[in-house]
Design a protein that fits this description.
With about 325 residues, this protein is of the alpha/beta class. It contains 10 helices and 10 strands.
């Protein structure tokens, strides 16, 4: 079974091709350099860049996989969630290819794709928990079996990745802020600045708007008092509470739902401190898996993988 998947939900134009469960290629064209001067993703620009880049990315994918479009059995694309204009580019391209090749087109959920990024190099064990951390979403999801998703908790306002980007902007750091803060945090003292745990209310939901405000208050107060912010220490202190609240709520879910497997997915799963914290949660009866870095950010391979699972479930 050959599946080609298009991922155009935000600022990466990506095409992944898998043969059964094996990734043959995962071509990604990032738009970060184009959005950098604006300090964040500009939706209209993102859609235009997807349109400009898609033909090149598609050609590269077929070349790397060493197949012809006529070898494909299915086309998949990210239907939602994401930027409307950007999603439309992937939808039109997928439906055009499907019509021309006369093969089925599969609509995939972007968030489910992130979760199934963990299944590219691992075999899922159920029941399992998936912790999704990205620019737009922060969720704890329970799976009893394949494609059976129960959202235990979600973000009520800012997602963790969005919070990282906005705090980085407050500090005058480049976009995207997550990797920059993570790098600086590794050189800092996490106990220098005091920040509250965001939404530490015993629920599985997340809220990072309060933490964002607390960061701004510290920065603004320092400026008013003509004091210099120690970037390394600030980033380390900020990252400490971000990781702590994610891990705290995850541990609560582990105790309540007794999963056999735990996976950390989404763009923020590339964060070094969060990856280390989750790996430390592994114990007898609980396996922890985290996708390779190339499958953490938005990519076509993860969409192809969840589409493959959708085909398998339908055939059974």
């Amino acid at each position: 079974m050959w599946i080609l998947a298009l991922e155009t939900s935000c600022d990466e134009t990506s095409v992944g091709i898998i043969h059964n469960n094996q990734v043959k290629t995962n071509v990604i064209s990032s738009q970060i350099a184009d959005h950098l001067k604006y300090g964040g993703v500009v939706p209209e620009l993102a859609a235009r860049l997807h349109l400009n880049n898609l033909n090149t990315v598609l050609s590269s994918a077929f070349l790397e996989a060493n197949i012809s479009p006529f070898d494909l059995d299915y086309i998949a694309y990210t239907e939602k969630p994401g930027l409307i204009g950007a999603l439309q580019i992937g939808k039109i391209a997928a439906e055009t290819l499907g019509s021309y090749l006369d093969i089925p087109v599969i609509k995939a959920n972007h968030l489910y794709g992130h979760i199934y990024a963990g299944a590219i190099d691992h075999q899922f064990k159920f029941p399992m928990l998936a912790v999704l951390v990205s620019g737009g979403h922060t969720q704890i999801v329970y799976l009893r079996k394949h494609l059976d998703f129960e959202i235990l908790g979600t973000t009520l306002d800012d997602a963790i990745g969005e919070c990282y980007d906005k705090v980085a902007r407050m500090l005058g750091l480049n976009y995207p802020g997550g990797p920059v803060i993570d790098k600086l945090a590794q050189q800092g003292n996490p106990n220098t600045y005091r920040f509250p745990l965001p939404l530490d209310d015993g629920s599985y939901n997340f809220s990072f708007s309060g933490l964002k405000s607390a960061c701004w208050n510290v920065i603004n107060k320092a400026h008013q008092n003509q004091q210099e912010i120690n970037l390394n220490d600030f980033c380390a202190s900020f990252q400490k509470v971000c990781v702590e609240i994610i891990v705290k709520k995850t541990m609560k879910a582990i105790k309540e739902y007794h999963p056999k497997m735990l996976t950390l997915v989404g763009g923020v799963s590339a964060n070094s401190a969060l990856r280390a914290a989750f790996k430390s949660l592994a114990r007898d009866g609980l396996e922890v898996i985290i996708p390779k870095l190339e499958y953490c950010t938005d990519n076509g391979a993860m969409i192809a993988r969840v589409a493959y699972q959708m085909v398998l479930n339908k055939e059974r």
